[in-house]
Amino acid sequence: MELDFEDYFPSMISRLGAEGFIGELCNGFRLLMDVNKGLITFESLKMNCFMLGLEVRDEELVYMLMEGDLDGDGALNQMEFCILMFRLSPCLMDGPKLCTTRQGVDPMLL
Q1: Residue 26's beta-bridge partner residues?
Q2: CATH number of residue 53's parent domain
Q3: With 80 as the cut, is the pLDDT of residue 89 above it?
Q4: How does pLDDT run across 12-26, given as a tens digit for each residue?
């Protein structure tokens, strides 16, 4: 199964402002995390995919975690999650040259 990704981050930043956007990322982290560990774990990610009706193979879940795991603990803390979300946003990573004119994003946020 291939998951499609449409980059809404630039328009969210434009609408919510930088602080509001970071707050929404933090809310997203809290929805996905294991409440006992305060981390997004393999188990919490798998459970959330199941609850959302997504059929994602275990290998794909492991890869998702590895992609953002900066400290090598096999899980994502809030900072790793936020960094990963920014890295996965093509418009935010490509800079203002591609996104500000189309999306109306403040170049200072890019």
Answers
A1: none
A2: 1.10.238.10
A3: no
A4: 878 888 788 889 999
CA angle, 56 then 10 then 23, to 5°: 75
Q: What share of the chain is helix, strand, coil (3-state, %, to 5)?
A: 65, 5, 30
For 22, the token pair is: 């970071």
Q: Which two tokens stand for residue 82?
A: 């936020």
Whether 103 and 14 have beta carbons less than 8 Å apart is answered as: yes
Specify if 93 maps to a domain. yes
Residue at token pair 């996905």: 32
Q: Cα–Cα distances in Å, from 71 out to 42, 45, 60, 79, 106?
A: 15, 18, 19, 11, 31
Across 20-46, average pLDDT: 95
Band of pLDDT at residue 2, cut at 50, 70 and 90: low
